[in-house]
UniProtKB/TrEMBL annotation:
Keywords: Glycoprotein, Membrane, Signal, Transmembrane, Transmembrane helix. GO terms for cellular component: cell surface. The keyword Protease does not apply. Residues 293-459 form the Stereocilin LRR domain. GO terms for biological process: cell-matrix adhesion. This is Otoancorin. Pfam families: Stereocilin. InterPro entries: Stereocilin-rel, Stereocilin_LRR. Residues 1-20 form the signal peptide. PANTHER family: OTOANCORIN ISOFORM X1, STEREOCILIN RELATED. The chain crosses the membrane at residues 1084-1101. It comes from Acipenser oxyrinchus oxyrinchus.
Length: 1103
């Protein structure tokens, strides 16, 4: 019996020897493990799986596995090691979980050979050692010498890259590490900052802050984070509220973590300390990566530097040290030409809202009154997108060719890339994939027709294809895939295609491919329909946890029937694997997996939940707790409260339906747990953000405004405009809007709606930004809208009146068009005003270039049918880009579709798959006769993208007939085919819907449900409705539910997970529910959830 450390050491020696030998390989080796907790083994296996999955934990290598007591390497071939004697003697030996002297020797050996041994050989051994290295670091790291401390940190790096769990970080000692060790540790965390989860970053920041407070100020900031989060009394006095803890050395230790410090604490930094840090040799590289600074943070730091030690106007050398702070510079007029040129390269990764205006000012300064040349384009670099279409069009094809290396690295808007690519391709022909790769970001301007003409076999072998594909639109990616599959058979395509391009493969193509092993589908980004087909083909007889571990994105296709086939003893292991891959799971899969797990646990002993202990609850993945039954939740004993609350704090509660009876039950359970003495000290900190509800907005300080953050969306605009600190409010609202994801194109059901309603934020920002405008007489236009206002407002530009929009100058309209064209909410009168601006700037639509048509974006629906019949739309890429815009009527869709067919010399029957896929909503402009003429093969290859359309019932019926021709009768449609067909299912008759297989119902596209006429939906059986799954069932509209029977409504409620009648659910203002705040979010849906969630989020994790 030897220790795990000895095992690692011997393997390290053997690996070093084996790499230089050619002796026969050993087919399999097994080692028995003792004393390793299950969590260690699961973590180790996750880490090792990354060694074979390009850094992703979604797949595992079939030659490596860890069970509860055994680790096994099988089928080891190079570059894996060939084990030499005496290694065969190790087979079957027992290894103990013990960090002894051999452990340090093994780690040192691994580190010493890390530069000479291939990653695939070193990575598994390093990964197996990582959890033990981390636990040793936490347990006794403070007592080891600096060399061994650094060695332990190196050993733990695979675990750090994976993302340390919050409970591990809670065990960081407050006083166990000295300042030097803490600095060393933070240096490693800075190296891996980008892969750390946000919660881990916050924990590390608070850890450093606590340590500094103790060491430098001999005070306490509250409950310590160390000792696993256990409460202990700190004898030190409580720190002052505004502790000036950010000294130069501390900022150097924090590095990129400085971007997490609240603006109020940044304001407290003394200028001399900040200047000392700025002049530090490391500050340039640190600021160079801090592109996640928000406006308030960036302006605060920059203004302090400008006051204390920085004068870019007179010291050009200091500009290069600004890094991300350059994004917030706002005094371009004071800069020399050389200083302006020095500032430009620093702006490439800026994400703050004001960057467009800064780039534009710098571009104007550099360009001056001279012509636009290739030298100027190279100088502008990341600021080149600030140039207008007219300016870019003045470049010659030769200039573009000569400056291609620089232009290929710029983030262009689509219409700009189209203008440059069109001119470039007029001189240079793309004869090979390499020619395409050289274009870099300009490829987004290459038409799908050109992409589709490339040789498929060459494309498949091209280096950099996946990187190029990331710059392409879905239609362009579809064109590339179609070009490849034209020259490559389906099976070879399945083997070789990777990344985002895989999702563009038609189901019809997959059905023709040979799929005989999981290895063929591993490590690829499948869509749900593809996943359903592949899983059914591979696992028709059942599935095991080891199979699930290797599926990755194909996990989307695992049905509840397959999960039910897993044996009870394997369900906890299965649940842990599913949790690790939860990003791929649907609500329905989670629900049936939890149901299976609860049944398996209940069969182990009577009253399992009532007698559950902390260890058993710890083994249950957090997300599964959202599927507890009410009796199970209420029976949980008080002793598991700390574990329960900690797990719930890590759960995304939007996975629970808003009206689920489990929500109030969880709240009551949480409140019951809060009365426990051990947890009470956490409560005040957990609910402190809610204290501001008790004060009026007019009394809020700048710090309060910043601390509320997203909670500001709960207030209507009138209320927010009473805040006295308007400067801070404007900065906070600007940061909030820029940090939120765009709203989904297809709104989700109210029960699972996670999108924060930002309408009140936009309205308030508009009033704050344009207060001077309201004193003007709009008709006379004494002062027009400014470009700065348009760029700052973004989507909030919808609040301009039509008269105000008419007051813009031509230059302001053209310069601000990219922002205005992206707004998808203008009313008809506003669109009319903007249409007038377009005509003033460019003339009638008959004279618009393809790039100008594309640039109009969501302003294009402002033109009438006659005008749309004159615009340049010979490329389907233009239609694809503007199809998602609101404002399209059937008449206008038909007019633009006919214009496209006319200019491209096509008919409905001659449309290819790529063109059909690119039409999007303009398919709705076809007549039923035209739809019937669509080529069947083209439809098969474009079905997934066609399935996203939402057309009138008659057209949906015609498309359904085309789907039947392509995939067979509705009654035979499989889960994968239902997913592929998408919204077209809404064209099926009541008789056809009744024949759908209940097991396939969860794979219906949620967006298809509300499109089904109510009388046809009513034909679904109780069994079918119950099988829809939570999200699909929640998509049923009030009109649809009104014609259902009582039994059908109850089936829907069961599917959603709410114990109420659907007839009550569908009312807009539900009984007992407060109406939404004007301009804000649903008070019960957001505030109610926050009141319950905020205490849970911080209870067990509060520092």
């Amino acid at each position: 019996m030897v220790s795990a450390a000895a095992w690692l050491w011997i393997l390290s020696v053997a690996a070093q020897q084996a790499w230089t030998t050619s002796l026969p390989m050993m087919p399999a080796m097994n080692f028995t493990l003792q004393g390793f907790p299950p969590a260690y083994l699961r973590t180790a296996e996750r880490l090792v799986s990354r060694c074979f999955g390009n850094g992703k934990p979604s797949t595992a290598h079939p030659g490596f596995s860890v069970s509860s007591s055994t680790v096994q390497f099988v089928n080891m071939t190079r570059p894996l090691p060939v084990f030499l004697p005496p290694l065969p003697l190790l087979n079957g030996m027992i290894f103990m979980n013990k960090a002894d002297e051999n452990f340090f020797r093994s780690l040192e050996m691994l580190r010493n050979i890390s530069g000479d041994v291939p990653h695939s050989l070193l990575c598994p051994l390093h990964s197996m050692a990582a959890p033990l290295a981390w636990s040793t670091l936490l347990g006794s790291g403070g007592a080891v010498d600096p060399a061994r401390f650094r060695l332990l940190l190196w050993g733990a790096e695979p675990l750090i890259r994976l993302g340390l769990q919050l409970d591990s970080l809670s065990a960081l000692p407050m006083a166990g590490f000295n300042a030097g060790q803490r600095e060393t540790m933070m240096g490693v965390f800075n190296q891996h900052y980008d892969v750390l989860p946000p919660g881990d970053r916050e924990k590390l920041l608070h850890w450093v802050k606590h340590c500094v407070a103790m060491e430098m100020f001999n005070c306490s900031m509250g409950q310590p984070m160390g000792n696993g989060g256990k409460s202990e009394k700190d004898p030190r006095v409580k720190c002052l509220p505004r502790l000036r803890w950010l000294k130069a050395h501390t900022m150097a230790v924090l590095g990129r973590f400085l971007s997490l410090v609240p603006p109020s604490e940044l304001e407290d930094i003394q200028s001399d300390e900040l200047c000392c840090f700025f002049n530090h040799s490391l500050s340039e590289s640190m600021f160079g990566n801090m592109y996640d600074l928000n406006h308030s943070q960036g302006r605060s730091l920059l203004s302090k530097l400008m006051t204390g030690c920085l004068d870019p106007a007179h010291n050009e050398e200091s500009i290069g040290r600004l890094g991300a702070l350059a994004c917030f510079y706002d005094n371009v007029g004071a800069l020399s030409d050389n200083a302006s040129r020095s500032l430009l390269p620093l702006l490439s990764d800026c994400r703050n809202p004001g960057i467009k205006q800064l780039q534009r000012q710098l571009a104007e300064k550099v360009l001056g009154s001279g012509p636009l040349t290739k030298q100027v384009m190279v100088t502008l670099g990341p600021a080149a997108p600030a140039l207008s279409l007219a300016q870019l069009s003045s470049l010659s094809a030769a200039d573009i060719q000569d400056s291609l290396a620089s232009l290929a690295r710029v983030s262009w808007r689509r219409e700009q890339a189209s203008a440059l690519a069109s001119k470039y391709l007029s001189k240079v022909q793309i004869s090979s994939p390499d020619d395409l790769m050289k274009m870099g970001t300009l490829v987004k301007g290459v038409s799908s027709a050109v992409l589709g003409s490339l040789k498929g076999d060459q494309l498949l072998r091209a280096s950099g294809l996946e990187e190029t594909a990331r710059n392409l639109s879905p239609l362009q990616r579809k064109a590339l895939v179609n070009a490849i599959q034209r020259d490559v058979n389906a099976s070879a395509l399945l083997q070789s295609l990777a990344g985002s391009l895989v999702g563009c493969l038609a189901l019809h193509t997959l059905q023709q491919a040979s799929v005989d092993s999981v290895g063929v589908i591993q490590g690829k980004s499948w869509n749900r329909g593809q996943a359903a087909h592949l899983v059914k083909k591979l696992f028709s007889r059942g599935i095991q946890p080891s199979d699930i571990r290797m599926l990755g994105s194909a996990l989307q296709g695992v049905t509840c029937e397959l999960i039910d086939s897993i044996g009870d003893p394997s369900m906890l292991e299965t649940a842990a694997i599913l949790f690790e891959n939860k990003a791929w799971l649907s609500q329905h899969q989670l629900a049936c997996s939890a149901k299976k797990l609860w049944a398996a646990l209940n069969r182990t002993r009577a009253d399992y939940f009532g007698s559950m202990n902390n260890s058993e609850l710890q083994d249950v993945p957090p997300v599964f707790l959202l599927h507890l039954t009410l009796p199970q939740l209420s029976s949980l004993p008080a002793r598991v409260c700390p574990c329960l609350l900690e797990k719930l704090s890590a759960v995304n509660l939007s996975l629970l339906p808003r009206r689920s009876p489990l929500r109030p039950a969880l709240r009551e359970k949480a409140f019951a747990c809060l009365v426990m003495p051990a947890l009470f000290p956490c409560v005040s900190k957990a609910i402190s953000p809610l204290h501001h509800w008790e004060t009026k907005p007019s009394d809020w300080s700048a710090e309060v405004v910043m601390s509320l953050g997203p909670l500001l969306a709960l207030f209507n605009s009138s209320c927010l405009r009473t805040v006295s600190n308007t400067v801070q409010l404007k900065d906070t609202l600007t940061d909030l809007l820029s940090s939120q994801p765009p709203p989904p194109l297809t709104p989700g059901p109210l029960d699972f709606d996670t999108y924060l309603n930002l309408s009140s934020i936009r309205e308030t920002l508009f009033h704050l930004s344009t207060s001077h405008q309201r004193t003007r007489r709009a008709v006379s236009c004494p002062v027009s809208l400014t470009l700065q206002e348009i760029l700052d407002l973004g989507d909030a530009n919808v609040h301009w009146s039509p008269d105000q929009l008419s007051c813009m100058s031509n230059k302001t309209f053209v310069d601000g068009l990219s922002t205005l064209a992206a707004v998808n909410g203008f009313a008809d009168q506003q669109l009319a005003a903007l249409k007038g601006q377009a005509i003033q700037a460019w003339g009638p639509p008959s004279g618009y270039s393809a790039e100008q048509t594309l640039a109009l974006g969501c302003l294009l629906p402002a033109f009438n049918s006659s005008e749309l019949g004159l615009v340049e739309v010979s490329s389907v890429d233009t239609l694809s880009a503007v199809a998602p815009c609101s404002g399209w009527t059937q008449e206008k869709r038909a007019a633009l579709l006919q214009r496209f067919l006319q200019q491209s010399l096509l008919t409905p029957s001659s449309l290819g798959a790529v063109q059909l896929a690119g039409l999007g909503g303009f398919l709705c402009g076809m007549s039923e006769t035209q739809v019937s003429q669509i080529n069947v093969e083209a439809y098969r290859l474009a079905a997934a993208m066609v399935g996203a359309v939402s057309c009138p019932p008659a057209i949906m019926g015609a498309l359904k007939s085309k789907a039947v021709t392509s995939f067979g009768d509705v009654k035979n449609w499989t889960a994968s085919e239902l997913s592929e067909i998408g919204n077209v299912l809404a064209g099926a008759s009541a008789a056809e819907l009744k024949t759908l297989d209940p097991s396939a119902m969860p794979f219906i596209s949620p967006s298809a449900i509300p499109l089904i006429p109510a009388d046809r939906l009513a034909a679904l059986s109780v069994t079918q409705l119950r099988a829809l799954g939570p999200v699909n069932a929640a998509m049923v509209t009030g009109e649809q539910a009104a014609v259902l029977s009582q039994a059908q409504r109850e089936a829907l409620s069961d599917a959603v997970g709410v114990a109420v009648e659907r007839a009550v659910v569908v009312v807009v203002k539900e009984t007992g529910t407060a109406a939404p705040l004007k301009g804000g979010s649903d008070q019960l849906g957001i505030l109610g959830v926050l009141v319950m969630v905020l205490p849970l989020l911080l209870l067990a994790l509060s520092p």
